[in-house]
Amino acid sequence: MIGHPYFQRLRRISQMGLSYLVYPGAHHTRFHHALGSMHLMQKALQVLKYKGVEINKKEEEGLYIAILLHDIGHGPFSHAMEHSIVESTDHEYISLQFMQALNEIFKGKLTLAISIFKGQYEKRFLNQLVSSQLDMDRLDYLKRDSFYTGVAEGNINSERLITMLNVVDGNLVVEEKGIYSVEKFLMARRFMYWQVYLHKTGIVAEQLLIRILKRAKEIMHEGKVIVCSDALRFFMENRVEKENFDQKILNTFSKLDDVDVLAAIKLWQEHDDFVLSNLCEMLLNRHFLKVKLKNSSIDRSLLEKHAKRVKEKYKLTDQETSYFVFEGKIENKAYDRHHQNINILRKNKKLIDVARASDQLNLKALSKTVTKYYICYPKDSV
After folding, report:
1. Mean pLDDT value of segment 4-24
2. Whole-angstrom distance, CA of residue 305 vs CA of residue 146
3. What is the pLDDT of residues 119-154, one digit of tens each?
4. More confident site: 92 or 336
5. Residue 188 belongs to domain with CATH number
């Protein structure tokens, strides 16, 4: 299964999108992460079976397949282009389409894995090991992303957390001795989001990438020449959504990776369209827009002031100006107390939510959504 082209494609999908433009070492791929997550799953099952949790051979195999393929649906640059290639469709849905296609190829051997992945299998903790607030996916990517970026705050003790796992009433829990490791894990997640995943330079890079594809589609629909790979051209010419995502489209999607998009951007920087060529040059040469983060919503007059300067300087239309001057918001919630919460198993066998069990007052604060607002505009418009 690892040798199948669907999975091998993950070698060409960057794990952290365009974060390497902020942290030069962040060039690891979804392939690294998938194998790492499966390795942690093997360790977790060893621990749980040692503690007497019943997991048979078929369930074990199903879990390994589910965690191995959990991110197979990611498109080029992972989250950066999640809704640009296939509209209004997340990577989990596409991952499921890949798994179902592979299930036919491997004559039903993925049926149990799909049931676990969808959360339909009777043993809930199996799905929680794959997808929850303390799953093998998060334990791998936090430690891995921390290592490759050099951001030490994200370096969690995944070995310790796995050792403290247990199952009570069919649900995954953490033994009381592991509460400080869980606290560290949640704090690390918060730090990684603000310092890495939602870094303001990373945000503007992703926005440029999204706008490049949007502009290229506009030019193509006007009948002008746009040179790119056949796979990328298909998704630019056709509106693809959940409703029409069939096997043929899945095969085309499987041929699409970071290489297609980067190669296209290198060509498009020479295009005669002012907007497209400038956006591509900005991204390729890291000549980014200025980005400012604020705790309150962006003042409309400030946005209009920068838009007016850019519009007049480069003789652009309002629509063209909107590619260079825009606003947005980002949200961070390190812990959701109302969705698959992390329960601590106390010595008296009672369960308690980690935010209540912790003596760290800031854990409760982590369960609140923090919103920040940003504005982007060309540096020379000031």
Report:
1. 96
2. 39
3. 999 999 999 999 999 999 999 999 999 999 999 999
4. 92
5. 1.10.3210.10
Of residues 97, 84, 68, 118, the one with CA closest to residue 249: 97
What's the confidence (pLDDT) of residue 56? Answer: 96
Residues in a beta bridge with 171: 168
- 365 has pLDDT over 80: no
CA separation, residue 140 to residues 40, 51, 101, 134 (Å): 7, 23, 26, 11
Residue range(s) defining the domain that contains residue 161: 5-199
Within a domain: residue 120?
A: yes
Look at residue 34 in the predicted model and tell me its pLDDT.
97
- Work out how many domains the chain is built from and give that number: 1
DSSP 79-136: GGGTTTSSTT--HHHHHHHHHHHHHHHTTTTTHHHHHHHTT-SS-HHHHHHHSSTT-H
Task: Name which of 294, 345, 295, 308 is nearest 134 in CA terms.
Answer: 345
Q: pLDDT tier at 382 (50, 70, 90 boundaries)?
A: very low
366 torsion bin: left (phi>0), alpha (psi -120 to 50), beta (else): alpha
In three-state secondary structure terms, 155 is: coil
**Residue 318 located in a structural domain:** no
**8 A C-beta contact, residue 220 and residue 328:** no
Q: Is 179 inside any structural domain?
A: yes
Is residue 315, in this structure, part of any structural domain at all? Answer: no
